[in-house]
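In the design runs reported in the main text, the only information available to the sequence generator was the tokenized backbone. The following block is the verbatim input for one such run; it is reproduced so that readers can re-run the procedure and compare outputs position by position.
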């Protein structure tokens, strides 16, 4: 399922969704948390991205595994090390994307329901901003290591 799309390796195609949507959610969730006046405009975008980002990152991870198994399973040396480094960011990125997705959904819910009050809203906002930073870090590291695996010397 995650092997090919129209005869092309799926991973280079699928990763673009993760690489674009993850930072977008990180920025919008942080803005949503830190600038309450933007919430009326951003709640649908944050909600949609909170669901889409973990799915995109999961698909990128699975397609990367399929690509490695099909074309790079016996690679060693410098290329093998670069692939292993890139692969090492898959699980932390997926965990960070899931955390950011769940916290973003929680933040939208808490901010729209008055019964939770300010202290809960502040805690969820702080956790969401922290998750946005972590997810941004891991998507940057995963993307950079993947580019270096392909294009690096």
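Verbatim output:
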């Amino acid at each position: 399922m995650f092997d090919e799309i129209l005869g092309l390796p799926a991973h280079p195609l699928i990763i673009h969704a993760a690489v674009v949507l993850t930072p977008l959610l990180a920025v919008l969730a942080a803005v949503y948390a830190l600038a309450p006046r933007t919430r009326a405009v951003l709640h649908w975008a944050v909600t949609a991205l909170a669901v889409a980002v973990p799915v995109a990152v999961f698909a990128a991870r699975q397609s990367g595994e399929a690509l490695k198994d099909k074309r790079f399973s016996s690679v060693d040396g410098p290329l093998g090390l670069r692939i292993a480094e890139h692969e090492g960011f898959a699980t932390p990125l997926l965990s960070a994307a899931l955390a950011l997705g769940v916290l973003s959904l929680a933040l939208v819910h808490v901010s729209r329901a008055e019964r939770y009050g300010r202290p809960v809203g502040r805690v969820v906002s702080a956790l969401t901003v922290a998750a946005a930073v972590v997810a941004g870090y891991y998507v940057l590291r995963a993307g950079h290591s993947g580019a270096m695996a392909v294009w690096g010397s």
